[in-house]
Design brief:
- By secondary structure, the protein is of the alpha/beta class.
- The protein has a single domain, classed as Pyruvate-ferredoxin Oxidoreductase, domain 3 (3-Layer(aba) Sandwich), CATH 3.40.920.
- It is 43% helix and 19% strand.
- The protein contains 8 helices and 6 strands.
Length: 198
């Protein structure tokens, strides 16, 4: 298969690394070679967490500027920060629920206007799928399931040749039994949200 390059960006504590592990396991279940790398930036304090995942016959886990086929962002300003990884053919999926950094809270920074963020992404990429993933996670019964909502949206795009059933199997094996039901529901809600996105 052609190599597919995915960047996932989030704020510490949003579940980026678990989402990456679920995707990696689902790829292996689908007989797709996968390579992953992660960057942790003071994650426990709300810092940036970035995962690079390459599917197919990739020789490296580095995704250079302009190389990402798809960008998944757990937070809108993080999507803007990682936009340089995208190109005119990239698909971007982002949660619209903002988590402003502490610099905004103490008056030392300004949070970007969400509408401007979306306009900038649309101008640079092929497609933007943007919705409130936190609301859908709450609907699924677990506000922490934003990562599973966004995985559902990712799989719905069809950019990655990973069947939804294999992702659901990986969700079941990679997440605690007490969260499996809400995580699977979150995945389905994200899948549906992406299907409705224009």
């Amino acid at each position: 298969m052609d190599t597919k390059r995915l960047i996932i960006v989030a704020v510490g504590g949003q579940g980026n690394l678990l989402a990456s592990k679920v995707l990696g396991e689902a790829a292996l279940l689908s007989d797709i070679p996968v390579r992953m790398s992660e960057i942790h930036g003071m994650a426990q304090r709300g810092g940036v967490v970035e995962s690079a995942i390459l599917f197919g016959d990739a020789k490296s886990t580095i995704i250079s500027d302009g190389e990402a086929d798809i960008l998944v962002s757990f937070e809108p300003s993080e999507a803007l920060r990682a936009l340089n990884k995208c190109n005119v053919n990239s698909v971007v999926i982002t949660n619209l629920y903002p988590l402003p950094p502490f610099t905004v809270a103490i008056g030392k920074g300004v949070y970007p206007d969400p509408n401007i963020v979306q306009d900038l992404i649309r101008a640079k990429t092929a497609k933007l799928i943007a919705f409130d993933a936190v609301a859908l996670a709450k609907d699924a019964g677990n506000v922490l399931a934003v990562n599973m909502v966004l995985l559902g949206a990712l799989i719905q795009t069809g950019v990655l040749p990973i069947p939804a059933e294999n992702v659901k199997k990986a969700i079941t094996t990679r997440t605690g039994k007490s969260f499996a039901e809400s995580n699977l529901k979150a995945f389905e809600l994200g899948f549906s949200a992406a299907a409705k996105a224009k």
